[in-house]
């Protein structure tokens, strides 16, 4: 007897239950971990010593939607500049928390520049780069004690390119004693996970609360990253920061990061992420923020900006009008979001369809909040516009783009301003 089909229930696995950290600056308190929203992070590539240039780039990243921004703190001059960066951001009305990225000399910089330690909202510590031999534990402890004194959370960020060599040697010795030794790849993964968890446990023994600790174990190969984070999530309940290190440039970096992180997010693993793209010459640094947002939004985990649905084009769409309009509308929506997200709550959930011919155009337009079906090759030079499934108007002539953009603006004002009124009543 044929069994009855079961209903399809799309969606990701439940989030792993992790501890919840608070990353703060002034009145801006960002919750990281647990059942909080998965956060988007980014990192500047300016010289931190140039406080103005760094503050400007931080603002651009924050305006694009980065909820935490990391800056390099590698020299005394950089540490001295951090308070000025924070002050400039506060003047510009940008309360985004700053994360200090420390390697090798973080213990001395945090000790010698207390204003830097205070101005940062979170410290990133790589346990493979805090000193060798006896100095390792001492210098790690000094950084953790500073975090305790200033009530700052930390990210213990282990990287396969800079593992603690003493720990790696220990793991290799343990492997050599096995009756069936693991592969070098498995040994490396074990060293990454062990370094992260043991470092977190040391930090707790020093006095840092466990909910102030975030872990990351970054590698550059997709399958390795998935395997490491699956095991890390099994072994601990610390909040986890996701990222593929040295992801690469352009489409390679985007595809690799998306492939790795999407698998983990679908399994409920990850509390915050950064897309480590190598910028194309002249490309905006904010691209890494946009990619992170689009991964989360495409997977249905968060909404950041209205989605533009557009067909890929074919022989029916020899005109480039729909491509130009889709690009224009996408840029317009993203530009408007810093203002819209405070004026029109819920607007980030809106879908806009820009279609290129009659085959799927009307159907997709009807399913969107607002959609336009542009004429394809040999079709009538008319562009019907659908609003909430109803054909509202047909646009013709040379100003279709301007008229449709105005209709989108009008739709946002009418549909989402009501939500603001309801929230205030």
From TrEMBL:
Residues 1-20 are annotated as: Disordered. Residues 30-292 form the IspG TIM-barrel domain. GO terms for biological process: isopentenyl diphosphate biosynthetic process, methylerythritol 4-phosphate pathway; terpenoid biosynthetic process. Pathway: Isoprenoid biosynthesis; isopentenyl diphosphate biosynthesis via DXP pathway; isopentenyl diphosphate from 1-deoxy-D-xylulose 5-phosphate: step 5/6. It comes from the Bacteria. GO terms for molecular function: 4 iron, 4 sulfur cluster binding; 4-hydroxy-3-methylbut-2-en-1-yl diphosphate synthase activity (ferredoxin); 4-hydroxy-3-methylbut-2-enyl-diphosphate synthase activity (flavodoxin); iron ion binding. NCBIfam families: ispG_gcpE, PRK00366.1. Binds 1 [4Fe-4S] cluster. Its cofactor is [4Fe-4S] cluster. It comes from Pseudomonas chlororaphis. InterPro entries: Dihydropteroate_synth-like_sf, IspG_bac, IspG_bac-typ, IspG_C, IspG_TIM, NO2/SO3_Rdtase_4Fe4S_sf. Belongs to the IspG family. It is an enzyme of class 1 (oxidoreductase). [4Fe-4S] cluster binds at residues 311, 314, 357, 364. The keyword Cell inner membrane does not apply. It catalyses: (2E)-4-hydroxy-3-methylbut-2-enyl diphosphate + oxidized [flavodoxin] + H2O + 2 H(+) = 2-C-methyl-D-erythritol 2,4-cyclic diphosphate + reduced [flavodoxin]. Residues 308-409 form the IspG C-terminal domain. This is 4-hydroxy-3-methylbut-2-en-1-yl diphosphate synthase (flavodoxin). Converts 2C-methyl-D-erythritol 2,4-cyclodiphosphate (ME-2,4cPP) into 1-hydroxy-2-methyl-2-(E)-butenyl 4-diphosphate. Keywords: 4Fe-4S, Iron, Iron-sulfur, Isoprene biosynthesis, Metal-binding, Oxidoreductase. Its EC number is 1.17.7.3.
């Amino acid at each position: 007897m044929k069994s009855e089909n079961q209903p399809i229930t799309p969606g990701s696995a439940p989030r792993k239950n992790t501890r919840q950290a608070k990353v703060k600056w002034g009145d801006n308190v960002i919750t990281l971990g647990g059942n909080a929203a998965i956060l988007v992070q980014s990192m500047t590539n300016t010289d931190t010593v140039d406080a103005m240039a760094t503050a400007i780039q931080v603002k651009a990243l924050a305006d694009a939607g980065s909820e935490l921004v990391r800056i390099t703190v590698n020299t005394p001059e950089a540490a001295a500049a951090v308070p000025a960066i924070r002050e400039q951001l506060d003047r510009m009305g940008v309360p985004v928390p700053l994360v200090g990225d420390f390697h090798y000399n973080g213990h001395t910089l945090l000790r010698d520049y207390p204003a830097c330690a205070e101005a940062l909202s979170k410290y990133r510590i790589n346990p493979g780069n805090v000193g060798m031999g006896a100095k390792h534990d001492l210098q790690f402890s000094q950084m953790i004690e500073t975090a305790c004194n200033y009530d700052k959370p930390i990210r213990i960020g282990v990287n396969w390119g800079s593992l603690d060599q003493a720990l790696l040697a220990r793991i290799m010795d343990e492997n050599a004693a096995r009756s069936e030794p693991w592969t070098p790849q498995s040994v490396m993964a074990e060293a990454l996970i062990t370094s992260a968890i043991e470092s977190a446990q040391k930090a707790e023994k020093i006095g840092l609360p466990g909910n102030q600790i975030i872990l990351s174990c970054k590698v550059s190969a997709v399958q390795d990253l998935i395997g490491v984070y699956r095991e890390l999530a099994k072994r601990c309940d610390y909040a986890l920061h996701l990222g593929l290190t040295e992801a690469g440039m352009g489409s390679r970096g985007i595809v690799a990061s998306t492939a790795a992180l999407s698998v983990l997010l679908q399994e409920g693993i990850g509390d915050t992420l950064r897309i480590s793209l190598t910028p194309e010459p002249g490309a905006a640094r904010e691209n890494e923020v946009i990619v992170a947002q689009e991964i989360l939004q495409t997977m249905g985990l968060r909404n950041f900006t209205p989605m533009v649905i557009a067909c890929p084009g074919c022989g029916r769409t020899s005109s480039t009008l729909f491509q130009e309009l889709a690009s224009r509308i996408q840029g317009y929506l993203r530009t408007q979001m810093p203002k819209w997200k405070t004026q029109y709550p819920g607007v980030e959930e809106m879908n806009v369809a820009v279609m290129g011919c009659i085959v799927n155009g009307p159907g997709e337009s009807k399913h969107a909040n607002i959609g336009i079906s542009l004429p394809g090759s040999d079709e009538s030079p008319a562009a019907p516009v659908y609003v909430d499934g109803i054909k509202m108007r047909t646009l013709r002539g040379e100003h279709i783009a301007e008229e449709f953009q105005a209709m989108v603006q009008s739709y946002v004002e009418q549909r989402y301003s009501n939500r603001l009124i309801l929230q205030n009543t």
